[in-house]
Design brief:
- This protein is an alpha/beta fold.
- It has a 9-stranded mixed β-sheet with strand order 1-2-3-5-4-6-7-8-9, with helices on both faces.
- The longest helix is centred in the last third of the chain and has 19 residues.
- The chain is globular, with a radius of gyration of 17 Å.
- The relative contact order is 0.14.
Length: 278
């Protein structure tokens, strides 16, 4: 691993690292916030997944999460949104290719060589964080938009891995909305039956209520993508049918931006702390 940046922040440290990923077959960067130590107990981890066009730096520099994370004694891990590099397949549009990995494992050429963000986030990155930093095994996950989709599917597909999950304006039903249909067609092919494994609504309807974890979603009611891309009410209905403990909050006047995230990130971190910190 190579340390790219380090900054003192709220008595903790904000760092940025580069490492060679065997899962993604390229070099990857991630950001991490290490809170000030309280005692000898390793702190728990919250993974943050960002949305389309973002990198590992957007949340770190815009959300203002470090102050609360320092207070709560929580490590923040912020991975990139896709594989990167000259050899990595890309597309001219913002919603496919680099910056748009959709947190799945691609099966179609040319994407399958590098686009395995699901395996990277489920296995490789947590193992690396555990090996390189003094952190607890307990973790939670959250994200925004495409990253909210990623957080939800990682939680739903891996019972017991996370103590809680939250999201801002997540893409909850990608098999039925333009962003998801475009990405899934490219990354997974035309067999729509294969898409269901990466759709939060489909996964929740098939979930075991005994494995459900506390879930918080915030959605702004002036979000320009609410009606055609996000549709959180569909997930709320899936949660009702499957008895999944979902809290959906509609926030008046808020849009899809980081101003929205910055306004409510403290709520989300305190929500996760209830379940992480023992």
């Amino acid at each position: 691993m190579e340390l790219l940046e380090e900054h003192r922040c709220f008595d903790g440290w904000q760092q940025r690292w580069r490492h060679d990923s065997t899962t993604l077959n390229c070099a990857m960067t991630f950001s991490i916030f290490l809170p000030p130590p309280r005692d000898t107990t390793p702190p728990p981890v919250v993974y943050w997944l960002s949305g389309l066009t973002c990198t590992d730096e957007n949340f770190a520099t815009k959300a203002g999460a470090q102050r609360v994370a320092a207070e709560l004694g929580i490590v923040l891990v912020m991975p990139d949104t896709s594989p990167r590099g000259d050899d990595v397949a890309d597309d001219d549009n913002y919603d496919l290719g680099k910056g748009a990995g959709f947190y799945l494992n691609a099966t179609q050429a040319p994407w399958a060589t590098h686009y395995r963000m699901y395996d990277y986030l489920r296995d490789e990155l947590p193992a690396l964080v555990q090996a390189q930093f003094n952190v607890a095994e307990r973790s939670a996950i959250c994200g925004h938009s495409m990253g909210g989709h990623g957080a939800l599917i990682l939680a739903l597909k891996n019972p017991g891995k996370y103590t809680s999950v939250s999201a801002f304006a997540p893409i909850v039903n990608p098999t039925r909305v333009p962003w998801g249909q475009k990405a899934f067609s490219a990354y997974l092919g035309d067999d729509k039956a294969m898409w269901e494994a990466w759709d939060s609504c489909a996964l929740m309807l098939k979930s075991d209520p005994a494995s459900a974890i506390p879930t918080l979603i915030d959605q702004g009611d002036t979000d320009q993508f609410l009606a055609d891309q996000l549709q959180p009410a569909v997930l709320a209905e899936a949660a009702r049918q499957s008895q999944w403990p979902l809290t959906l909050r509609i926030q008046s006047g808020f849009d899809h931006s980081y101003w929205f995230i910055a306004s409510f990130i403290e709520d989300h971190l305190r929500f996760h702390a209830q379940h992480l910190v023992k």
